[in-house]
Design goal:
- The structure is a single chain.
- The chain has eleven helices and twelve strands.
- The longest helix is centred in the middle third of the chain and has 20 residues.
- It is α/β, with parallel strands linked by helices.
- The chain has a seven-stranded mixed beta sheet. A three-stranded antiparallel beta sheet has the order 5-7-6.
Length: about 300
């Protein structure tokens, strides 16, 4: 590239991709998108510039920074590691609720848990995984489904692993306190038995009870990093997460999920997601966005 062409390209990179109280240039956006992809595997096209600006402008104000260029310098430096986690938290989507996509929990209740619990009552081990647990409603919904069939589940060797890339969401799940509106879809009988009123004068809140809490273990985990869990899972929930990855990353993650399922284990994914790549020959569609590890699959 000649000096003149390089200057033109540099000028284009410095042109604003979004302007408001601050200006975010094409270069700023690309640096932020590259860091998010490197850290979490999330792909951000420039059509998401407005979203990125609206979520990060609050961070610039809080840090008293003058520009997105300064923000990129901060999060790209070793001393900006804590703020880089804040950026990741701000740019990841945490939409969740109890019993979201209820057909998955009905399928779990009728097709997966009866035989799993029967084996557990005779001493077998049972493990389930909420792979993008957000603030905890999904793994607690899995636990409530278990408890609806076996109130003594906490005394069996039955555990639910709940993981998320965002440590703040993991902390919320561990805390296990939810507002009145959040429990709207929890059946009354389960709500009365497995939640404890934790209200103050300002708001009505409910805390998960001990029998529910004991079934779920929360950990921070990046789906695009190494998975340290040595065992496999009878059922895994990973819904509305992989859609944010590009196709090569999606295929790698699907294959990793397949390798972490027990024989004939189940994978539940989001309504707009489909298993693709090499894993598609191992994970057989067996319901509405429910996949089963095929018999004889070398997992």
């Amino acid at each position: 590239m000649t000096g003149r062409n390089a200057a033109i390209a540099d000028k284009g990179a410095r042109e604003p991709v979004f302007s408001g109280d601050f200006t975010m240039s094409h270069r700023d956006f690309k640096e932020i998108a590259a860091m998010l992809y490197a850290d979490a595997g999330i792909y951000l096209p420039e059509t998401k510039a407005t979203l990125v600006y609206s979520r990060l402008v609050k961070r610039l104000r809080k840090l008293n920074l003058e520009s997105f260029h300064d923000y990129c310098d901060l999060v790209g430096a070793p001393e900006g590691a804590d703020e880089r986690l804040e950026m990741l938290s701000a740019l990841t989507t945490n939409v969740t609720r109890f019993f979201r996509e209820p057909h998955h929990f009905e399928h779990l209740k009728t097709h997966v848990l009866p035989s799993l619990l029967d084996a557990a009552r005779h001493g077998a081990r049972a493990r389930l995984w909420s792979a993008a647990c957000s603030s905890g409603q999904e793994p607690y919904s899995i636990a409530l489904t278990l408890l609806s069939l076996e109130p003594n589940a906490a005394a069996l060797d039955v555990k639910i692993l709940a993981t998320d890339i965002d440590p703040r969401m993991v902390a919320e799940g561990q805390r296990g306190v939810y507002g009145e509106a959040a429990l709207a879809d929890v059946p009354d009988a389960l709500r009365k038995r497995y939640f404890v009123c934790a209200s103050d004068k300002q708001r009505q809140e409910w805390m998960v009870a001990d029998d529910l809490r004991r079934l779920v273990s929360f950990r921070t985990l990046n789906l695009n990093a190494d998975w340290p869990m040595p065992g496999k899972f009878a059922a895994t929930f990973c819904r509305n997460v992989v859609i944010y990855f590009d196709e090569p990353t999606q295929q790698k993650v699907w294959s990793k999920f397949a390798s972490k399922l027990e024989p004939n284990g189940w994978l539940y994914i989001g309504h707009s997601e489909r298993v693709t790549g090499p894993a598609a020959s191992r994970l057989v569609s067996s319901g509405v966005t429910a996949y089963r590890l095929s018999r004889g699959s070398d997992a």
